[in-house]
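Reminder to self: tokens first, then the designed residues, so the page reads top to bottom the way the pipeline ran.
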């Protein structure tokens, strides 16, 4: 039985994402050789992150790795906060979102790509998806602390942007120097 397409790839570098029986499957098998190679790396990173976060409410759970180019995880409920109805993202939701980020950071994982499609809301609760670019502490022993702090900064900036958009409040975090340089050139 073939799953239903849950997410159409935005470009040729993205995985085909299907949904079946409460399980999401990301599959790069049909992609070009270079996209498969890069997809395999991102799936390795996602597997590491989900394994480290096992049992944490608000993130998917790792299910299986049927091939090097395919990963299965549990589906989490919710809609992207960019599509949230008025009142779905309130102060209580923001507090829970901050706590969720705190909890993933405490387990040595930083999301790093928590844009509005990767932050979900369901019955007032936050969920984070797509850990394919997440940084897991221990990946790069020489630069580990610095890289982890950079990724945490990216997460803090996203929390700020969500809070600013929905509540009109928030404290903008000080970002790492490379981020500031790239942003200043735009």
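Designed residues (186 positions):
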């Amino acid at each position: 039985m073939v799953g239903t397409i849950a997410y159409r790839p935005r470009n040729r570098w993205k995985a085909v994402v299907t949904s079946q029986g409460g399980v999401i499957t990301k599959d790069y098998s049909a992609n070009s050789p270079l996209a498969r190679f890069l997809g395999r790396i991102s799936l390795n990173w996602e597997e590491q992150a989900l394994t480290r976060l096992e049992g944490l409410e608000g993130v998917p759970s790792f299910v299986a790795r049927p091939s090097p180019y395919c990963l299965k995880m549990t589906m989490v409920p919710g809609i992207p906060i960019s599509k949230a109805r008025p009142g779905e993202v309130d102060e209580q939701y923001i507090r829970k979102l901050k706590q969720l980020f705190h909890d993933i950071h405490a387990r040595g994982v930083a999301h790093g790509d928590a844009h509005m499609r990767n932050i979900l809301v369901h019955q007032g609760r936050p969920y984070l998806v797509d850990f394919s670019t997440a940084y897991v502490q221990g990946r790069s022993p020489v630069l580990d602390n610095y890289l982890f702090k950079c990724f945490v900064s990216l997460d803090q900036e996203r929390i700020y942007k969500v809070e600013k958009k929905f509540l009109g409040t928030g404290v903008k975090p000080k970002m790492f120097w490379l981020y500031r340089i790239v942003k200043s050139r735009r």
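Residues 144-167 form the longest helix (24 residues).
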